[in-house]
Amino acid sequence: MAKILRGATAQETHSAILDLIRSSGTVTRVDLADRSGLTGASISRVVKRLLADGLIIETGYGDPTGGKRATLLQFNPRARHAIGIAVDTPSTTYVVTDMSGRVIEQVSSRGIGKDAPATAVQRITAELEDLIVKAEIEPSTLVGVGVALAGRQGRGGTRLLRTDSEKYAWEPFAVRDTLKDAIDHPIVVENDSTCAAIGEFWAGKIPSVNDFATVYMAAGFGLGLVTNGDVYRGSSSNVGEIGHMVLDVNGPQCWCGGQGCLESLAAPAAVVARAGQDETLADKLGLRGRRLSTRSDFAKIARLAAAGDPRCVELIEESATYLAKALLSITNLLDLNQIILAGPGFSEAGDIYVRVAAQELNRLSFVRAMHPTRVELSKLGPSAAALGAASLVLHTQLTPHQNTRS
Ligand SMILES: [Zn+2]
């Protein structure tokens, strides 16, 4: 902490002390001075400001030390709010959270489907305004809106790549800039897998000493990394494209231009395509086989696999095995001890993916003799990306001492 605060701006100091109070539960001014390395006078000044802003509250007295009982300070989660939006092809999910990441309101609407980008953004903006009214939050308490998107980010504003319908339909569209013009609140746009990772960190309350990765599955796969309590963004926020890790040099053509990528072998579209080659299964499941029905077709297969249907178990295990191989390489590369599987792709048969990946890592991880690598399902459910987008707003707005690179 003292190292973080050396040379910090006033805003960074305030946010670091706020973060210390948040992660401590209750704490006294003396504790804060001890733990931050700041003087008592500086702490008093910062605390006074945080109390005036309503970000913390005084909550009784601690044990007497040397006579006088010190006032306990506590984080006030209801003082500010954040909104997270996960934009996806089949559905758009909105969450309103307080500062602790607790969900106050959650709604879903139809996804972007085949909408032109400008039409979709207009609808999202209108739905956002309705949500603020429905959640009954004071607009002045809203610190910002986070938007989780699939796809690539470009230099001229974030661009969305719609991976499970017309491939490049949104690619030249500057989503972030358009939203910034349309929405009267600070906007943070990030890829959905990074959002899911930061959601685990905030809402899942993972301690900042734990480095971990989140694999997010929707149309494809993405990997979000949290190290030292911050997200790793790479050089252009395009980090974690695990979906385009090559697993078979002679494998099928991938839309990215490569061959044998994880996505082309194991994503929902690949599983549905394999199921479609089995006429009996395709009839049994009523597979529609159209691009826009890929996710609902995949959900049917995954649901039957979870219920024990042998052919569907086989298909999901095949997808899970490819993912497990990719996770093995990632684990060996990064020496991870925790991997969380998140997103709508794991909703129905997540347990099978966890089982297959855990077996593979226990059996073959390079560091298996030193420590295990735990694989678990996200507790945040299918709205992990929306919740993560809201968490990212809190993370960016309230803890700028952690965001010096962003
Ligand atoms: Zn690829």
TrEMBL record:
Any idea which UniProt keywords this protein has? Kinase, Transferase
This protein's species is: Kribbella rubisoli
The record's section on Pfam families has: HTH_24 (PF13412), ROK (PF00480)
Cross-referenced PROSITE patterns: ROK (PS01125)
Respond yes or no to whether keyword Protein biosynthesis is given for this record: no
Which InterPro entries is this protein grouped with?
Answer: ATPase_NBD, ROK, ROK_cs, WH-like_DNA-bd_sf, WH_DNA-bd_sf
Classification via Gene3D superfamilies: 3.30.420.40, Winged helix-like DNA-binding domain superfamily/Winged helix DNA-binding domain
The protein's name: NBD/HSP70 family sugar kinase
GO molecular function ontology, one term from the record? kinase activity
| Family affiliation | Belongs to the ROK (NagC/XylR) family.
